[in-house]
Amino acid sequence: MSVLGKGRAASAELVDAHWADGTTTRCVExxxxxxxxxxLIYRIAFAAPFAYRSNRHAIQASFYRRRxxxxxxxxAGSDVRVAKPxxxxxxxxxxxxxxxxxxxxxxxxIVKGNDSDEMxxxxxxxxxxxxxxxxWGMHGSGWQVSPRALVSTANLLxxxxxxxxxxxxxxxxxxxxxxxxxxxxxxxxxxxLESGIPAVLVLRYLVLAxxxxxxxxxxxxxxxxxxxxxxDVPGDLRHDVDRLVAHTNAWKDTEIAxxxxxxxxxxxxxxxxxxKEMIGRWSLERTIDDATESRLxxxxxxxxxxxxxxxxxxxxRLIQKMVGSERVRRQAGRLVSDSRFRRSAMRCHxxxxxxxxxxxGRVSRDFRQSLLRFQLNSFLAVCLxxxxxxxxxxxxxxxxxxxxxxxxxxxxxxxSRSARRLFHRAVRRWESRRWLDFSxxxxxxxxxxxPGVGVYARGMAKHLAIKTLSPVVSMLKLTGMAxxxxxxxxxxxxxxxxxxxxxxxxxxxxxxxxxxxxxxPHTQALVIGxxxxxxxxxxxxxxxxxxxxxxxxxxxxxxxxxxxxxxxxGGPDSRTEHACVNGMDRAIKMVRGLSPDRKEMAAxxxxxxxxxxxx
Length: 615
Hints:
Blueprint: E1 2-6, E2 11-18, E3 24-31, H1 36-46, H2 51-54, H3 56-75, E4 81-82, E5 85-91, E6 96-102, H4 118-135, H5 139-144, E7 156-161, E8 165-167, E9 179-181, E10 185-190, H6 203-211, H7 223-229, H8 235-253, H9 268-284, H10 290-298, H11 300-309, H12 316-324, H13 326-337, H14 339-359, H15 371-383, H16 386-393, H17 395-410, H18 412-432, H19 438-448, H20 451-467, H21 470-485, H22 491-514, H23 523-529, H24 538-542, H25 548-565, H26 575-594, H27 610-614
Parallel strand pairs: 4-10
Antiparallel strand pairs: 1-2, 2-3, 3-6, 5-6, 7-10, 8-9
Helix pairs in contact: 3-8, 9-10, 10-11, 12-13, 13-14, 14-15, 17-18, 18-19, 18-20, 20-22, 21-22, 22-23, 25-26
């Protein structure tokens, strides 16, 4: 198993599914275990835990939604495919539902080049697809492919189909065998139709939700419109539609959702369905045993009291397990009365949590801890990201980071090696995404390794090392502004903004002094380095005149990195990332126009040409 990626609502894992007949299928499992922020947003909107994680009707609806969309698109003659769903299961260790779909070997759109604009073509296809899905009443699916949700382009992968060879019976403009090369066919495939957060960023879906009586839209379905449009479809597709409608209605009715159809709150059918779903969820999560399940199903007052216990903060779930499970009550009794069992249980609990922290990279593989350290690490695991937790608890990591920080500030060899490693990694990433062809990538590596770039490469490495202090400086900025607004000097707010520019200026001056006998210019780096935020690109801009290919590639990569890490609206293969790279391309062309005598880059953001790739 390998983790392909992690989004707001789920992580995608590549697995091999083994079937009863002995066959094996490569598939992608979406494990719906979202972070605290996603769960909090969903809880506020619908007064329920995240649906795809805990609601069996929601996960079944996602299964049939993919089948229905795939069938309707095929029936409409669309070239867009959908990753076929294979099965759903409940992952008991992670207490989360899992949706498995076929493995699609594809790629994202190539950034705009001289003869290709795949993003614009994809956006045009998505607009048509969105209108079709909304017209069928599948509003949630339309949101997942809406171009106005800037990250939705990552929900589709492009697959290159084998090019056609056309024989025209002549030898003009043809290959030796008389065959003409046809055009590449790119087939979009939808790989994600499950939302992570309510679709509140596009007014169209808010209005559609309001018309259906819901304030917050989340994978909504207009069942009347869908059923009206599939009256004459074949039996299998009609069965899938019926199952989708049934599971979606059951899912929506098993959430409290105070902002969705409030006139149905007191419905007897809805209360009965909600009660049945909660009992099934408690049983699946092993909160209750068989005896308690039967009692909850037959006694409404008992069920109501058990449900209210779960509303208690912090200890509600634990008390529910003690009340609902005989096994848990026996274990609790032994914990109180049997010291030997208590020590063994605590040891097993510590070992289990330690293994989980090790898998997350929070502690080292040979980590051992006392009870006091375990309590401290339990607190840190809740409060800190895994990297920060590891830094706080692992002395070897702290020592290694300190040595690296010292080496990157003092060792010319380490500076050059670090800069070269980061540059080569960025080139490989662009090659793997087909944003550069391999010949241009090889030229870039060769040019970056030239001695003339060495001085600037070492400066880049030191500026990146300084940039790692950004989280600390950001806290100082917030503290300084708060102190200034509360009556302190304006210097409290201004001083933190000068920390990184001053450090970059010192590094640039040191680099200029060391290379003073070589006559290596540092004027631009000195000026740019003093500018907040932009200063990290000081040496990248300085190398613009002497090695334009390297500089232009690094500028594009920096722009793409901004687009990938922009909160909410950014991400890999998003319209935001492409817009940032294309904006940098326009800025570079403008500078070229102002400096016509400057040596131009051998090849800008190169998209693989058809003849070259065919060869």
